[in-house]
Write a structure and sequence with these properties.
The structure is a single chain. The protein is mostly helical. Helix content is 68%, strand content 3%. The chain has a two-stranded antiparallel ribbon. It is globular and about 55 Å long. It starts with 5 loop residues before the first helix and ends in a 5-residue tail after the last helix.
Amino acid sequence: MEEETMASRRQKLKSDARGFLDTHFTFYLLLFLPMYILGIAGFLGSVAFNLHDNTAGSDWLSLLSLVSSLLSVGVSFVMIDLQRGVGEFSEPVSKSFTIFNRGAYFLGSLALIILVGIFTFLWSLLLIVPGIIKSLAYSQAIFIYRDYLDQGKKIGFLEAITLSRKMMDGHKWEYFVIGLSFIGWSLACIIVIPIIWVYPYMNQTLANFYVKLAAEGAESTDDGPTVVTTHGTGGQDSGSAPTETFYPDSKSHSDDDTHDEQ
């Protein structure tokens, strides 16, 4: 078998995302609709506040941005399930608010957004590059936390961040390049391609990236959360038999990582 390269894996992740989007565009349009509405509201609000020199409006815009970020996290949960073959392309508007389905989803995601923001900011005080590197390292923490919740496993916020760092070890550059690969698509939104296609395409690709990394942890025998995934690397074969993915047990790292820097 031909050895998988970073480029070939990136193309596979993006190909899976395009396949979903081409087949279920209406679903994605409605799934992202609340975020589009919030984005438009934020843009119009920003213009209005600037015209009237209303500095108090920044608090409202910050709240709007936070809500949009939380909705985006919930939508990522949905896309992860779709790639794993355990989700359905139905009730998109309802699934837009997945983050509010469980209090633990909402509170955990909110706490991790704040913690990751603080840690990234502190690293950025040193230099921009360390801040970027750490933001990449922490990028999967919310998804790991959610997988633990869904399996009834207890995990702390800092443990989720630590596991994200371990998961992203050796994959930060790959994740960064995936993000860079969408710059051209983003510019195309201005001229040709609507953002209503590019934004779901990018987010589904990043969700596929997490699913791929999580599946690679299947070789671990530690007692972490069990995640049902479809067989193989692609998530579009819904008839495939499910397999189980294991994460390293967060408790097994307690002795080594209690004093490890975040």
